[in-house]
From TrEMBL:
InterPro entries: Alkaline_phosphatase_core_sf (IPR017850), Sulfatase (IPR050738), Sulfatase_N (IPR000917)
Similarity comment: family membership: Belongs to the sulfatase family.
Protein name (Swiss-Prot/TrEMBL): Sulfatase
Domain Sulfatase N-terminal: 2-294
Source species of the chain: Halobium palmae
CDD domains per UniProt: sulfatase_like
SUPFAM superfamilies found in the cross-reference section: Alkaline phosphatase-like
Domain of life: Archaea
């Protein structure tokens, strides 16, 4: 299922969200994956280890996972850490940060930019850096558990695309003529709404965000190597959906047009004993994660 919240229910339940229902939270009858792999969330850590349960942890800056009306995905974990301030998170009430462009040119509100202005002084303060750094620190503290299940849900490189300037310069060296341009464009057909310079600047913003995420994900993977975890740990890397970035004349995740740019997502599994370096042709979907992990 795609996008966002429906994709997560696919992962957490092993059941297709679409076309059964639309966006929504976990339901009472759902056998959530975290509890299936780590046991009762209210059990003590000592008791869980004695009974052979795994420890589970969720680390994420994705606000929708915590929303009662649409998320509620966190209670079944042994522990969870919410990185605050991403996108539309109701986090800070300080005076509103100046909106960087006319509101009618953006599909989002000003909350993200207020949070960023109040909390971001260096690359380490970007959300992807905070998520993967927290995950690396959790591994350093918890890798001695007999078994663990760590779920990292990083919102980036979703919009807003607001990468560090030094990364943006790699992809936007000449500085496109885009005064008052916004890192969250409306989901629409770009030739009817934006100039070629605006499109190319948007593509540069996205590319720089991908590099930012890759850099901090790489540091997490380095931590796994330092701790010797590749020898006995299954790692699954995937996402919920892609995005149009000029493809087919469109920008954003227009759900009515399921081209490869949106639906053909990365899915990489690193197993200590199987499939090293292999590329498989079989169809794999997010619902396959549930039985694979179990």
């Amino acid at each position: 299922s795609t996008p966002c919240a429906p994709a997560r229910r696919d992962i957490y339940t092993g059941r297709y969200e679409f076309l059964e229902r639309g966006w929504g939270p976990m339901e009472d009858g759902d056998a959530g994956l975290p509890e299936q792999v780590s046991g009762p969330p209210l059990a003590s850590i000592t008791g869980m280890n004695e009974q052979g349960y795994r420890v589970s942890q969720l680390i994420s800056d994705h606000v929708h996972l915590w929303e009662g009306s649409m998320g509620n995905y966190h209670p079944n974990y042994t522990g969870h850490e919410f990185i605050r301030g991403q996108e539309a998170d109701h986090h800070r009430t300080d005076p509103v940060y100046d909106f960087p462009c006319p509101v009618d040119r953006s599909s989002k509100n000003e909350r993200h930019f207020r949070h960023a202005a109040l909390t971001r002084d260096r690359e380490e303060d970007h959300f992807a850096a905070r998520v993967f750094s927290s995950a690396a620190e959790w591994l350093e503290r918890n890798h001695d558990h007999d078994d663990f299940y760590l779920h990292i849900d990083c919102f980036d490189p979703h919009e807003p695309w607001d990468p560090p300037e030094e990364l943006l310069e790699q992809f936007d060296p000449r500085g496109y003529d885009v005064d008052d341009w916004h890192p969250v464009v409306n989901y629409d057909e770009w030739p009817e709404n934006y100039s070629r310079d605006e499109l190319e600047h948007t593509q540069a913003l996205y590319a720089a965000m991908v590099v930012l995420v890759d850099r901090w994900l790489g540091r997490l993977l380095d931590t796994m190597g330092d701790l010797g975890l590749w020898e006995d740990t299954l790692v699954i890397f995937t996402t919920d959906h892609g995005t149009f970035n000029g493809d087919h004349g469109r920008i954003g995740k227009l759900q009515t047009h399921e081209h490869d740019a949106l639906g053909h997502i990365p899915f990489i599994a690193a197993h200590p004993e199987h499939g090293h370096g292999e590329r498989r042709d079989q169809l794999v979907q997010l619902v396959d994660i549930y039985p694979t992990v179990l």
